[in-house]
Specification:
The chain is mostly helical. Helices cover 69% and strands 0% of the residues. It contains 14 helices and no strands. Mean pLDDT is 92; it is low at 1-6.
Length: 382
């Protein structure tokens, strides 16, 4: 058995994963002016790339440790259970969101609530549509991230085995799969898109593998500084370059409307097949943050940062809740008006509900852990 690695928890992982979940919630509300301040406007990548990269990093930390204790079989069993849980949550979100949108369409007489998310087939062909949803063939708009995550978790044992043999070898295989996918357009079939799943898992596995590989490197040399100028300088330069191409200031009315670089300078940046520009941006951004922000920075321990981190600790539940809240926010802005006050109320309320739910989930988890650690005598006395 390989020696285990124990080290202090990296506070950055949960914080930035929680921040990505908040950004996803904000981005998923149509006509939400707060979305101008999320990551998608400041570079090529958006919160989805951050979420998947950190998911790969977290999975690498957890499952590499599990493989040391229980072998590959334990990894297969645990990752399969996790994939099952994600699948169940996805179907649950699909059913609840569809019911919510149908009720809104009926109450307000607006078919757009159903048509824009592409759930209308549930009314016309309920059986075949439900079966297609269960098979992950039918994925309504804004409900297509979790299916990709199911596939990634099923693929995770292969990633762990490859990383154990060779990190460069694992990355080479992942890159080769990504390259074949982008050249051939290979994808899983989808009801909505002729090209396949909106998040092509054969492309996005590369980012997930990069995250897991970074976790393995971090476990091998936890004390090695990431502040390496020969990497930080080009990574920082690329982040600045992505910022200039994206030109976030043009979306703000009181700022200059001129771009410094043409928006089509680098051509189309496919999100479905994970454009190399998007991949390079999120990896460069992650390195800059890792190099400049200490893993136990004091500001990460403040109450507001802890609220964000709690969302990251319960990513599946909070992502699912955020999806439903984004639909509620869409309905609220459409029916009650989209004044700045209303927009602020919808965003603040959604983020507060996500944070409070994450806090409650953490408290329940701590209570269960305390009960499990209690002696039989204490358990009987309680």
């Amino acid at each position: 058995m390989r020696p285990s690695h124990t080290k202090e928890r990296d506070l950055r992982i949960d914080f930035f994963r929680g921040l990505a979940l908040i950004f996803i919630f904000v981005d998923h509300i149509p006509n939400n002016s707060w979305a101008k301040g999320t990551l998608k406007n400041f570079g090529f990548a958006d919160a989805s790339e951050v979420f998947v990269l950190l998911a790969g990093f977290s999975a690498g930390l957890a499952y590499l440790s599990l493989e040391e204790r229980g072998g590959v079989r334990a990894v297969v069993e645990r990752s399969s259970r996790r994939a099952r849980d994600i699948y169940v949550w996805h179907i649950g979100v699909f059913l609840v969101a569809s019911l919510l949108l149908f009720l809104a369409a009926r109450a307000f007489g607006k078919a757009s609530y159903v048509n824009n998310i592409v759930v209308g087939h549930l009314a016309t062909e309920p059986v075949s549509t439900l079966l297609s949803a269960l098979a992950l063939y039918y994925q309504p708009n804004m409900m297509n991230i979790l299916p990709m995550y199911v596939v990634l978790m099923l693929w995770l044992p292969v990633i762990i085995v490859m990383l154990r043999r060779s990190i460069p070898g694992a990355l080479t295989v992942a890159l080769a799969i990504w390259l074949v996918t982008n050249v051939t357009g290979f994808n899983l079939p989808s009801f909505q898109m002729a090209t396949g799943w909106f998040f092509n898992p054969f492309a996005w596995q590369l980012l997930f593998t990069v995250g897991a590989a970074a976790a393995m490197l971090a476990r091998r040399a936890p004390s090695v500084s990431t502040l390496r100028p020969e990497i930080l300088v080009p990574a920082g330069a690329f982040v600045v370059f992505a910022f200039l191409v994206s030109a976030p200031w043009v979306a703000i009315s009181w700022l200059p409307s001129e771009r410094l670089l043409p928006p089509n300078l680098l051509g189309e940046m496919s999100k479905t097949d994970l454009s190399m520009w998007r991949l390079l941006h999120v990896v460069a951004l992650a390195y800059v943050v890792a190099a400049l922000v200490p893993k136990n920075a004091l500001w990460l321990k403040q109450s507001w940062a802890n609220a964000v981190s709690l969302c990251g600790k319960h990513s599946l539940e909070i992502f699912s809740l955020g999806t439903l809240l984004s639909f509620l926010g869409w309905i609220a802005l459409a029916e009650l008006g989209s004044s700045q006050l209303m927009v602020a109320a919808v965003n603040v309320a959604g983020i507060a509900i996500m944070s409070m739910t994450a806090w409650q989930l953490s408290r329940r988890k701590e209570d269960r852990r305390a009960l499990a650690q209690a002696s039989p005598v204490q358990a009987l006395a309680s």
